[in-house]
């Protein structure tokens, strides 16, 4: 599989993808609205991580955290901890680098928000099969054209990689060198891309003819082969989540949470 | 072309409104962020900048993509997945080769040039969605940048920037400047300037020089984006000039706006006719 999705039997996996998406959006809206750095961190610890453990994707989440997020957080703390432009309370200074309290608070705020955003999205992606997500979103009213483009892209990736590999081998057989300095490697890119694009564009015609022959996009609402069930409890839950997020934003804007 | 059923026409006004509203939201978000931000940082916090940057840009990009996708004929729709995969594949290849560039919008520019701004916008937006599903969700907040790149590539093609080999890099350079300006608030308010090790170091250097956070990410973007987009547009124009004109001529947008200059001798007379006045500036509604 080319996506991050992990097949597991869990309550989180069984949820309607739209519910999970609304929950994710609510979390993102809340963590970016509140100014306190510990609220996003609390949401990560109390909501996101337990959801991952419940869905039995905790190990993979940890690995992705180490690969994707940790480097960003380290860079963030170095850049903003030491070089925050509006820092006044200097703790330690060495040349142009000034470790300031304001900088540390700033990087803590951004860092905890980023953690909630990235980890929350990862749990969503890890527990939601793209096909199921597209079906559910189409049922909820999204254009089937968007669903087609996303699903087709995900399915083309393996075929594309296969074709890219064979072009690379063919060009190497004709003397293309891919080792050497950056400039040489950059020049190697073009003889790879050009045949790739040419072949792909030739395929487009066949595919669109096949699709139009099957009446793609003809009826506004075609019936779906698979139906993602959407119980009443989840529909109510979605509205509650959206209302909670809206309430938090209103409270922040009005100034109750500050 | 022939695919425009009456159902599409009924939604045309709605789609126009979506695109116009999306553009308005993006412009308003950017203006608000650069005008209101200094006061908020002076108060000792991020204020609502981060939420507005994230929500405004995502909603704007979503509206444009949703409004634009309905205009696209099936032939264009089946081109977009290929372009998305091209974006991701070359972007990853660039990272693996260790080049100090992104090169992650070749497919977006390609679609913009061959099928117009609407198609470019959809390709850009959905590329970042796919990225979120496959490699990691960090690219998602930058969806608006990809939309802007796709739209600008489409208009560059419409205004004849791909008729001459040397004009395309100029269009790429300008696109890069706009992309840098649009993405700077995202890098500043959502990522705190830390979008990667190399870019983070550059932001830190600009801040040490006494620039504000937003100014530093803007300057960092202006260092890398114009160069990256110049190279991207150059690669695309090389690829497209290498394509047989029979293939290029298959796209209605290419024929209508005479994107590559040379009017193909075998092209049917009626699509070539509206392209006859050189570089049509603002035919907003080409077909009734």
List low-confidence stretches of chain A: none
The shape of chain B is: globular
Number of strands of chain A: 2
Distance between the termini of chain A: 45 Å
Major sheet characteristics of chain B:
none
Report the mean per-residue pLDDT of chain B as an integer. Answer: 82
List the total number of helices of chain A. Answer: 9
Rg estimate of chain A, integer Å: 24 Å
In what range is the share of β-strand residues of chain A?
under 5%
- What is the first-to-last residue Cα distance of chain B? 12 Å
Radius of gyration of chain B (Å): 19 Å
Largest interface: A-B, 81 and 81 residues
Assembly state here?
heterodimer
Folded structure, characterized:
The complex is a heterodimer of chains A (about 260) and B (about 290). With about 260 residues, chain A is mainly alpha-helical. Chain A has two domains: about 10-135 and about 230-255, no CATH class; about 145-210. Chain A has nine helices and two strands, in the order H-H-H-H-E-E-H-H-H-H-H. In chain A, strand 1 and strand 2 (about 95-100) form a beta hairpin. Chain A is flat and about 65 Å long. The mean pLDDT of chain A is about 85. Residues about 1-5 and about 265-288 of chain B have low confidence and may be disordered. Chain B has one domain (about 15-260): Orthogonal Bundle (Arp2/3 complex 21 kDa subunit ARPC3). Chain B is globular. The interface between A and B is large, with 81 and 81 residues.
SSE layout and pairing:
The complex is a heterodimer of chains A (258) and B (288).
Chain A: H1 11-14, H2 17-33, H3 38-54, H4 58-83, E1 90-94, E2 97-100, H5 101-127, H6 130-139, H7 144-173, H8 182-213, H9 232-254
Antiparallel strand pairs in A: 1-2
Chain B: H1 6-10, H2 12-42, H3 49-69, H4 74-97, H5 106-115, H6 117-134, H7 143-158, H8 167-190, H9 197-208, H10 213-242, H11 245-248, H12 252-256, H13 269-272
Helix pairs in contact in B: 2-3, 3-6, 3-8, 4-5, 4-6, 5-6, 5-7, 5-10, 6-7, 7-8, 8-10, 9-10
